[in-house]
Amino acid sequence: MNDLTMPKDFLWGSASAAYQIEGAHDKDGKGISNWDEFVQIPGKTFKGTTGDVAVDHYNRFKEDIALMAEMGLKTYRFSIAWTRIFPEGKGAVNEAGVAFYEAIIDECLKYGIEPMVTLYHWDLPQRLERDYGGWESPEIIEDFVNYATYLFKAYKGKVKYWITINEQNIFTDFGWMTAMHPPGKFNEEALYYKVNHHVFLAHAKAVIAFKKIMPDGKIGASFAYSPSYAVDCQPKNAMAKIDYDNLKNFWWMDVYAYGRYPKNAYNYLVKQGVAPIVTETEQATLKEAARLIDFMGVNYYQSAAVEYNPIDGVTRFGEMNTTGKKGTGQVTGLPGVYKNPSNPYLETTDWDWVIDPSGLRYACKEITSRYDLPIVISENGLGAFDQKTADNQIHDSYRIAYLNAHLKELLKAVDEGCEVWAYCTWSFTDLLSWLNGYQKRYGFVYVDRDEEGGNLNRYKKDSFYWYKEVIATDGASVE
């Protein structure tokens, strides 16, 4: 047993997303989402996988939450599908959808599990995409706030912790720069920053509305944070790190925490002719929300190495590894500014994601120093090729080692003064890993299905019992 533990009220948790687990894509009044449409395009996902059935959490949520209770989970972070509440994005409410999520919330509360709700985890009502271009139009801001406000009122008194937007930096980059996510646009840089500005305003107005309805509730956004290291002490590489941080990290976190864009990054984008236009009214809205947010949500998977990228160097558009064939991912960067080579001091997963436990501690310390905000680790986990034995055992010692190493660093971060409220692993059960299909498994609970289908039975992995002990000891069992 180690000497460091988390406080008794620490929220040991796990996480999921509606599209990745629920299935029932056309049941009980649910509308069509952008992902329902996007996955029908040949070649967009591994072996053409979809979330039509996913892992059938829609019909099995009581079984899944009972397993969470057996583990001793303190919080369950899940997202609500906008299309289950407002099938067309606005207008008539689908009462069956409202009742479904209330049943999930009530099931969590029955076992003493704190529900943590994400409003938007990438699945946009397709009707809004069709009517005005979705996030490309400022019209979406009002529709998002209407959706969010409805949920705040519907679940007031039952849900204390809320996350507005999940990984804004990822869904906008993949949607408007690399065409890997809906709406599948490529290198639309000016539009990309315009879209982000609309998302920031939607987040900000939702936060302001939330505090009027639930002044004692807790709200923030979840950011996919990859803290960076310069490859060496050459000044040009140190400068590249600063530019990387301003353009790839602080561009989002500064808006959440300060209500403004980083000046150096904004000036660079002005010179490129792609900076978003910010009115005085919008600036005031962003600053008001920044004053009101309660925490910085962090989805941490890997760190980034940074070095100077010559003007004729690599671009943003290298091949991404979505197959699990190690070494197929390519180096990317911004010509004339930075690139992200592999880190020779760190191992990688089969999907070429750097494994860097100390990066989690680095991230917490940087957020604490820069923003002085409490932290919710809303995602952290290992995607791997898990194998089930003939007697239904899953020996995922590699996942235990990964999570143990990250928790060790998180315990150190708290001991060093970082205020961390929660740690949510990704994920509780196996699920659809967006572009990567079902082969990339993250869960403590093995779901018997693959790209061709399966019986969807649940089996506890070795990591299930390991995390159960971590929770029971408030982290003292972390080696």
Overview of the structural elements:
By secondary structure, the protein is α/β, with parallel strands linked by helices. The chain has a single domain, classed as Glycosidases (TIM Barrel), CATH 3.20.20. The chain contains 16 helices and 14 strands. The chain has helices at 18-21, 34-38, 57-71, 82-85, 95-110, 126-132, 139-154, 168-176, 189-213, 235-248, 250-258, 263-272, 280-292, 357-371, 397-415, 462-472, and strands spanning 11-15, 75-79, 114-120, 161-166, 218-224, 228-230, 296-299, 304-306, 333-334, 338-339, 375-379, 420-426, 445-447, 458-460. It has an eight-stranded parallel barrel with strand order 1-2-3-4-5-7-11-12, surrounded by five helices. The protein has a two-stranded parallel ribbon with strand order 6-8. It has a two-stranded antiparallel ribbon with strand order 9-10. Strand 9 (333-334) and strand 10 (338-339) form a beta hairpin. Helix 9 packs across helix 13. The relative contact order is 0.14.
